[in-house]
Amino acid sequence: MSRHAFIDPGLCDSLAVCQARLACPTNSFTREEAGELWYISPTCLGCGRCLLACDRQAIKLI
What is the mean pLDDT of the chain? Predict the structure, then answer.
């Protein structure tokens, strides 16, 4: 069973320089416009690197 990362919108601060996004080996973080919430695309491998890099603890692996 594969895992996938999900962002809790109540905890995410949507910064342009997102450390979790930078840690993602597949560049799975995306959003429609600047300032909107990040979301994680289906290319996520479930590796957990973003989880470790997020200082707001807004990411969960499911």
Answer: 93
